[in-house]
Amino acid sequence: MEPASELIRMLSSDNFFDRQKAAWKLVEMGAEALEPLMEALLSEKNSQARFKSAWALGEIKDPSAVGALVQALLEDEDEAVREWSAFALEAIGDTKAVTPLVQSLKSDESEAVRIRAAQALIVFEVADVFMDLLEESDVLTRQMAVIGLGRLKCVEATEMVASQIEDENVGLRRRAAWALGEMGTFDAGTFLKPALEDESHVVRMTAAKSLASVGGIDACRMALKLIEDEHPQVRLTAVTTLGELELSEALSHLVEKMFGEDDEEIRAWAAWSLGEIGDPAAIEALKEACKSCPPQVQEKARDSLVQVFGLSVDESEPAEGLQGR
After folding, report:
1. Which of 178, 213, 237 is the C-terminal boundary of a domain?
2. Exposed site from 11, 105, 212, 244, fewest CB < 10 Å?
3. DSSP codes joined into one string, 75-121
4. Number of structural domains found in the chain
5. What pTM did the predictor assign?
6. Are residues 259 and 221 in the same domain?
7. Domain with 262 in it
8. Is 22 inside a domain boundary?
9. How far apart are CA 193 and CA 131, in angstroms?
């Protein structure tokens, strides 16, 4: 195998495959390559060589590289080097990286690096750090904190995350609605109520989807209020959420949607949700849909009958009381 110095030189090659081959060989060298890689990370003029060095250090996973990677994370002028340094610190898993990763998340000029730092902190499972970050004034920092708490399903932070749901920033409101769904507690459902009435349809749609994770009759009733929303994406999400909740209270409302909604896709997913609920009371309506509804609706209705209820499609006339829908 070539000496480490030669492989380090190859990391600056204009040829991608040469760079990648050299980086893998350095990884295979393990501890022997640590010092040359750390030196290259901090001193090579070529940014390709520096970020390949960061990547290789992450693959080797030796904690002795943490100091060099932290320095690169906080000081390197190249965004890709900082991003790969955060990735390598995540891969190594040494908790000494937590504080500099927090600093990077809060202050790096690159959004991509801040996101990468947040992802690393999620792997470190530092829920307390994310809760502290919710106190920051910077919107992106709070967005990353909300995402972290949602990914960690930190129910202790439910109320803190809910406090972001009426922020003026729509992205933060959407992420807070998503995170409450990830937490999936009864309180999360209560805190979602403002998001279900948000001026942004994206926030309402996210909140409707989160109700499926919250579960229960209250979540079902909240989703029912959205099936008449002015925006079709919100109505569609509410309809599918009702199927995921699997409560018969939604049955008659979904039948009405399957036959009366203007949007064919929503009608089709209403048929799907009727199958997900699995109540035999939906069978006759689904049979009629197979005969009288547009093709997309017929397909979902047929799937529900066959896959959920184990029935073949009846070719007889619609059941009494359903004609004329």
Report:
1. 237
2. 244
3. H-S-HHHHHHHHHHHHHH--GGGHHHHHHHHHH-S-HHHHHHHHHHH
4. 2
5. 0.86
6. no
7. 251-325
8. no
9. 22
